[in-house]
Amino acid sequence: MTIESIGVDVDLPYDELVIRSGDPDQLADYLLDLVKTLKDLLEEIVAASNLTIDLVSGAAVYYALKDQGGNYPEGTWRRIQVGDNLEDQKKINGVFVQVMVREPPE
Fold first, then answer.
1. How many CA atoms lie within 13 A of 25 on its CB side?
2. What is the pTM (predicted TM-score) of this model?
3. How many other CB atoms are there within 10 angstroms of residue 76's CB atom?
4. Domains of the chain: which residue ranges?
5. CA distance 45 to 31
6. Which of the four, 7, 24, 35, 106, has the lowest number of CB atoms within 10 Å?
């Protein structure tokens, strides 16, 4: 399974002296630097928000942690691909039961 996230610290340029200077050349340079930094940050955010999770066939994404015995507790939700469908399942009485099915568009 692959989960991607933003892996960089965000540090926007901030120079109060330039901002208050009133010098149009300094302000223009500062704004260009700020816009470039914001553009780079936006690209990172877009890449992270277009999250993909790659699973091998039959694997699932679980929405709970395993207990001390290595099992998922009652009430755990999971999402799993079954054939061409995507299923949401809930663990009830020790068995994952289908709650909702999403079929691919035709």
1. 0
2. 0.50
3. 18
4. 1-54, 60-102
5. 21
6. 106
Ramachandran class of 78: left when φ > 0, alpha when ψ lies in -120 to 50, beta otherwise:
beta
Flag whether pLDDT at 23 surpasses 50: yes
How many whole angstroms separate alpha carbon 78 and alpha carbon 96? 8
Question: Using one digit for the tens of pLDDT, what is the confidence trace for 55-91?
Answer: 666 788 898 889 999 999 999 999 998 888 889 999 9
pLDDT tier at 52, thresholds 50, 70, 90: low
Q: Which residues pair with 100 in a beta bridge?
A: 88
> DSSP per residue over the chain, as a string?
-------S-------HHHHHH--HHHHHHHHHHHHHHHHHHHHHHHHHHS------TT-EEESS---TTS-PPTT-EEEEEETTEEEEEEEETTEEEEEEEEPPP-
Residue 1 reports pLDDT greater than 50: no
